[in-house]
Structures are given as structure tokens and as C-alpha cells.
């Protein structure tokens, strides 16, 4: 699918972003992040995504963007038929494939389409038959990344992996916070759904421990969709969340760690010795909250969330200052995209906003 025209209002917004970006020095890292697009095959969303692609490509010519990450809920909440969901995923990938820089996606809780199998309006369980399993999503939206230099996928059907950025002494770790096993009961009900059941699987923990954190550079950014705990969704539980945090904390502190859990679906056993080699984790960058927020969890990891990029629930949540920002179709407020700049030497991180919202600087 070809891109739609680069609109005049998007060109003007692109130039406003260019003027606000800090100068990128040798060794700095620059990446674009947007989340909660909830893409639908309709004109206004094709226009918004086309403008994002045009903008990133235009900025890359002078400002050098290292990669783009789409942070989950990439499609979804629209026509419930699996074939429609697959069509939306395919169209989104076709549009993103025009990017001149590597692009990566993380899996969001709406991306498996399981919400359309729910057995009642207020139920959090779903019938099988509507879901798009991980291997199907991988083939359409994730497998292209296998060709990128310095990218290390966990394997076919695994919606996580990592990217090395040696010039910035940094690794980008892409995780899946909806990584539950696919189990259908005799009643045809999914035991776990991507929509409501959040988890790091045992396989994902082992991959992070045994591969993604091995021989890592000094800095590690974590990208994922779910951002528990947070004040908007305090009820959400992420299976093995504490184990992942303890593993990352041991990595940051250069410690030895051994963790295990007995569970029929989420069990694991991992051991690592980081040999006194300390690392820095500037932030976990996520979606899901539909708002611009910064907060720290009990392990003192900084979470940075970004306002939803799509039209779904426009203005649903304010930012941490209580400000609502709207997305207006076919205008320079049609979406929200952050251009992050990380200076490893000065250890600073900032984001310039394309579209609706505000620029931000972060205390890392």
C-alpha cells in the first residue's frame, strides 16, 4: 500500500518539531515512540499514519532517527471478525514499511482481538475463535525486524527481542506484557486472554535473563505496552512482574540472582551472575495509560507513558498536570508522537512532541 500525501499541516508540524529538537551529538540516541494507535482501515487513520511516516523520514534526513517503536494496541477495538483484524494489521505494516529507519512493535492488550469473544458485556473472559494468536501477529507485524542489523528476536511467534545501538552504548529491550499461554477449555473459553490477562511468561523471563541481559552495553531502555503499577489501572496484575523487576534490578546493580516459581502456566527458574558490572536503565517507555505520565514503581524504575496516538477515547485521560489534549482528525493534532533524545554522556533524556501534547524533559 502506498502512503497518502504528506499534508501541508503535517509538513508544518514536522518543521516545528525540527526546530525544537536538541542537537544530536556523536554517541547520542534518538528514537520515535507512539502507542495506542488502535489502527482502523479508514481514511483519517491512513492519513495520520502516512503523515507520521513522512515526518520521521523527513526528520531522519537531518536529525538522524535511530529507530521507531510502536508501543502496543497497534490495532483493535474495531470490527470483530478475525479476518478484519488481520486486514488492519496488514495495512498498518504496509504503511510502516515505507519508513527509512528500522521500526519495531510491542504487543498490546487489544492486539489479539480476544475482546470480541467476550461472553457478556461486563465479562472478562472470552470464547475462542476471535483471537489472533502470537504466531499470526508475528508473521504480519514483527517478522520484518529479523532482517535488521543488531536486532535479536527471541524466535518465531515470540513477540519480544532486543536491539543493540553500539554508538550510544545502549540496548533497547522490547517486551510483551500480555504473554500468557494459549489454552482453550472444554467449554470453548480461553483460559487467558491478551485483553485482560497480563503476564511475562517463563520463556520470556529466561530469554531476558539468558540472552537479552548478557554482554549488554552500559544503558538499557525497556519498551513494553503495559505499565503496571499506575494510578489509572491499579487493579491490573502482571504475572511474574516482580520477577522481571528483580532480574532487571540485579542487572543494574551487577548482582547475582536466582529466581524460580512453581506454577502450571507461569513457572520458571532463572539464574544470573552479572559479576559486579553495573548498568543504567534510564526508563521503561510504555503505552496503555492513554496519557502523558511519569512515575516510579517500588523498584525505583522510571516509567514514561505517552498519550494515545489514535482517535479511540480521545481526551479520555488527562496528563499528570490534569490537562486534556484532543486529537482532531485531518489537523496537526490528529495524533501524538514523541521524538526522544538520549545523551549517554550527560545522562539526559527529553522528548519533543509531534502532534497533540507537550514537549517533556525527564529526571533520570
Describe it.
The chain has 364 residues and is an alpha/beta fold. The chain has one domain (8-362): Purple Acid Phosphatase, chain A, domain 2 (4-Layer Sandwich), CATH 3.60.21. It has six helices and 17 strands. The strands form four sheets. It has a seven-stranded mixed sheet, covered by helices on one side. It has a six-stranded mixed sheet with strand order 3-2-1-15-16-17, covered by helices on one side. A two-stranded parallel ribbon has the order 7-9. Helix 1 (8-20) packs parallel to helix 2. The termini are far apart. The model has no long low-confidence stretch (mean pLDDT 94).
Overall geometric form: globular
Straight-line distance between termini: 40 Å
Name the strands of the widest sheet in spatial order. Answer: 4-5-6-8-12-14-13
Output the radius of gyration: 19 Å
Instruction: Give helix % range.
Output: 10-25%
Total number of strands: 17
Order of helices and strands: HEHEHEHEEEEHEEHEEEEEEEE
Q: Helical region count?
A: 6
Please report which band the strand proportion falls in: under 5%, 5-15%, 15-25%, 25-35%, 35-45% or over 45%. Answer: 15-25%
Largest sheet: 7 strands, mixed
Instruction: Compute the number of structural domains.
Output: 1
Identify the CATH architecture: 4-Layer Sandwich
Q: Specify the CATH class.
A: Alpha Beta
- CATH H-level superfamily title: Metallo-dependent phosphatases
